[in-house]
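Residues pack. Consider this:
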Amino acid sequence: MAMQGHITELSEKHKKLEELIEIEMSHPDWNEIRVSALKKQKLLIKDELERLRKSLN
């Protein structure tokens, strides 16, 4: 079950990154570099989640 805990933790980080991206982009003078970095982190987590979920099956 340690794997499931890791998946849950990564899912929460993914959701928090999505929220940060939305908050950042809601400002009129949002920072494109910061948003790009957040999106890259989010994508890396998504890829890791997919890999972990496939290894469970």
About this structure: The CA atoms of residues 2 and 8 lie 10 Å apart. Residues 2-56 form one domain.
